[in-house]
Design brief:
Layout (H helix, E strand, L loop, with lengths): L2 E9 L3 H9 L1 H11 L5 E8 L2 E10 L6 H7 L4 E12 L2 E9 L5 E12 L2 E12 L5 H25 L2
Helix pairs in contact: 2-4
Length: about 160
């Protein structure tokens, strides 16, 4: 079983400007330095006029984890590796996202769409979180889904502040 979560964010800025800022390597690096946690870094990055693909690492310190997750991971934090792929699709951009937590039976997969909305744009991210732990897996999924949504909100706010 998995736990879905969705984020919708509108911006007064046009699609191409939002996209260019979201996938800009320096903005991505700055965002990770600001909010990526312990060990945050860009693992891989490639892009051209047709799209962009990158893998990044986040770190979440144990003190910042919700109680139900702490009980599962113990006294150490979590490493999160995320891969995003973006491609031009008509008047916007489509993307996929994959999230892995090395050494843990958990992950997430999702889709992203950045499209025109009025004079601005709208980003829609839909992610399904899966935790393969008997009995408490559903509670952990719920907590991880909330953390992912919060992280996406913070990242989007950061990116929009750079426009």
């Amino acid at each position: 079983m998995s736990r879905p979560t969705e984020l919708r964010v509108t911006s007064p800025h046009p699609v191409d400007r939002v996209y260019a800022t979201m996938v800009d390597r320096q903005v991505l690096s700055d965002r990770l330095a600001t909010m990526g946690g312990p060990g945050a870094t860009i693992l891989e990055y490639s892009g051209d006029e047709n799209g962009c693909k990158y893998r990044i690492r986040h770190g979440i310190d144990e003190k910042d984890l919700p109680g139900v997750v702490k009980s599962f991971v113990g006294s150490h934090g979590i490493t999160v590796e995320r891969e995003e792929t973006w491609t031009r699709a008509g008047d916007g951009y489509d993307g996929t996202v994959g999230v892995e937590l090395p050494g843990m039976p958990a992950g997430a997969r999702g889709t992203m769409r950045l499209a025109p909305r009025g004079e601005g744009s709208e980003l829609v991210v839909t992610v399904d979180v899966t935790v393969k732990v008997p009995i408490i897996g559903g509670k952990i999924e719920e907590s991880v889904a909330q953390q992912i949504r919060h992280l996406l909100e913070m990242e989007t706010e950061y990116t929009l502040s750079r426009l």
